[in-house]
Amino acid sequence: MAPLLQSSQPWVEKYRPRQVKDVAHQDEVVRVLTHTLETANCPHMLFYGPPGTGKTTTALAIAHQLFGPELYKSRVLELNASDDRGINVVRTKIKNFAAVAVGYARQGGYPCPPYKIIILDEADSMTEDAQNALRRTMETYSKVTRFFFICNYISRIIEPLVSRCAKFRFKPLTEEIMSSRVIYICKEEGLDLDSEALSTLSSISQGDLRRAITYLQVIPAEVVRALFSACKSGNFDLADIEVKNVIAEGYPVSQMLSQLYDVIVEADDISDEQKARICKKFAVADKCLADGAEEYLQLLDVASNIMRAIHNMPQQFSFGN
Questions:
Q1: Mean pLDDT estimate for the chain
Q2: For the chain, what are the domain ranges?
Q3: How far apart are CA 204 and CA 260, in angstroms?
């Protein structure tokens, strides 16, 4: 069992690469961008690919390597999925930031080129009208502002924007790459993760390193694996797998259930009918938790239903709300 350690900083941020060369498994992207940073003459860029593969990390690293900590705030505008990025924002906030010219200001050994950067994370969620308005802003202020678009689906970006950008595709991370990064974080945080737990974590993360690191910090993967194994064996005892301790430390049951759901779906030794019965219970538990039900009872309810579904035991009772 790994020690349950709370951290004041999310590990996703704590262990985020600070330089482009440290981004994992994107060799071609890193090679091209490293050369671009040497000249400090960046074009508009479009980063696309599956989540958790380093797109946002790369964009932020480029901006930090160009401007350094002192000029970063004045030269870089970040807009993510939580911001309103409709046509009005494009016409006001983005346009006003893009219109202001800047000059060379070499500080602390950073290149500090005479342009600013606007980073638009999850750009594929922008409306078509907003993207069209953004195209005109790019045309007008391209000499003083560079745009970095980040998205999962390039097909949702209008062609006029795509054609104006250098495109970089980010590949899903291999299990080997993810495992090596997780092992490094475990060593830094003093966690003891066995090989089976590591394999489970890599499997349910499906190439998303951000997801794997989040799972690692929120719920030790071996807890989820042990819970599933206990249900399969029919020898279900929460005390033996220390789930009570996990809850006592403040880890959300909803996150544990989310990870357990992934394990169930990926399991090869459970029939589709059994998975359907179990997933129905997950839906009920999720609704109960949203309505304020007691977390520990919902976890008991889900686990007992998993055990009954796997061993074809009759339904006896449910904790419900």
A1: 79
A2: 26-169, 175-310
A3: 9
